[in-house]
# Entry
Amino acid sequence: MTSGPPIPGLVTIGLTCFNAADTIERALTSAFDQDWPETEIVVVDDVSSDDSVTIVERLITGRRNARLIRHAANTGPADARNSILAVARGEFVAFFDDDDEALPRRVRGQVQCLEEYERLNGVQLISCYASGIRRYSSGYEMEINAIGSRGREAPHGPGVADALLLFRRNPDWFFGAGTPSCALMARRSTFEAIGGFDASLRRVEDVDFAIRLALKGGHFIGTQERLFLQYSTSAPDKAPAKNLEAEQALVKKHREYLNSIGAYYYALNWPKLRYWHFVRRYDRLCLQLLALLMRHPMSASRHLLATGPRRLLHEYRIRRGGS
# Structure
């Protein structure tokens, strides 16, 4: 991260792109349409094999505040975001996804939310997430409520790491939709303090960033206003086996912390329940659940009751296309 001192008031909008020819124009246009007066837009293409680059080049032609960076090799979304951070000149950095649509007030809403929290609490390490709406191809729409967008106290510190790794949630904190990078804004200094994203992770790199921020005492806040539209898509890297591999890699990375609180086995094996559910191997799911209940009866019971029925209802609503 060698782009020099940040420019006060400037927001860098970072947009990672990979084979997004069908959606990149919508996403990039929404970045152009932000009503914040000072923005720069940095698009990183991670070696797309479709027409993404051609579309981006056409859209940014003549725009002095927009640039395209092309990776020489496909290195994944974490490294693409690090490429954005390396050139970002803004005091704030906001990440957009290549298949989402930001509403015109997204940048303004997040800057105002973050600055107000700083003023009231005197905290330096803060990540701010936008609330939004997720749209499915079936027609089902789900409200995305950002972490920290409700409640008297924002989630902060190691308790957030426990929630992300173990689903151990402080009942006084609102965790909402978690910590997705597609909704993230923070000061550039915060990204620098945490060390950016771990390029060895092809998925859940946003969760890893949040865990490291939490373990450094960071605070997690969110806008009440819905500021973006997320379009749910499928892709090979979202397959159940890939998800399981990524989630277990995340747990293994944070093994030292998890061992310190006696929770490594639980964190490593809970993702297997989701995997067996998604591949419809309910015999294996039951065996895995029994093993977890025997070693961590209270944690596994609470976790299952808190997430199981909600997961099934969510899947039902997606299938029937209603709310």
